[in-house]
Specification:
5 helices; elongated
């Protein structure tokens, strides 16, 4: 029977809150809501919670409408609020220590190879820029000549001449 009593207590508090939405003790109402839901049988919890949340939302809407009407009725620029009202929500300054996030990078010093160039098994060799450019020019020129020579022999000029002569004879 305590479940019914708690639910009645919750419903009575909701009725009182609807009569006076501005004077509602929301903390007490939420505690009564939690107790009622805990004591309600599992099969009815969702339906009961939905009804209570709907009524609480309507209470909040009625409260907001009442505050808006009071706001519009005020003369001048609006309501005068205490300076201490929002001190918990306003931050005047902020200091942030990022020293833990920033560190000095480690210096990486490249060591000179101790092997001489003759002892190394590398295919890399040091050469002058002009020498390399001359070799590249020779290579490019030679490969271009080879490609041109290959094109010369791909064409069968005699076959083309015969095809043109046959076409002329057939059209004449």
């Amino acid at each position: 029977m305590t479940t019914v009593q708690l639910q009645l207590e919750l419903w009575q508090q909701l009725e009182q809150a609807q009569a006076q939405p501005q004077a509602t003790d929301w903390h007490q109402l939420c505690l009564a809501f939690d107790e009622a839901i805990d004591k309600t049988p599992v099969g009815l919890r969702l339906a009961t919670a939905a009804d209570v949340i709907e009524q609480m939302a309507e209470l909040l809407a009625a409260r907001a409408i009442a505050w808006a009407e009071d706001w519009y009725r005020l003369p001048g620029d609006g309501p005068v609020l205490d300076d201490d009202l929002f001190t918990e929500f306003v931050r005047q300054s902020l200091s942030l220590d990022l020293s833990d996030l920033v560190g000095v990078p480690e210096l990486y010093v490249r060591s000179v190879s101790e092997k001489s160039h003759e002892e190394a098994e590398s295919v890399v060799e040091y050469r002058e820029k002009a020498e390399v450019l001359a070799e590249l020019e020779t290579f490019v020129y030679q490969s271009a000549e080879d490609e041109i020579e290959a094109l010369e022999y791909d064409e069968d000029i005699a076959a083309w001449a015969e095809a043109v002569r046959v076409a002329k004879a057939a059209g004449a």
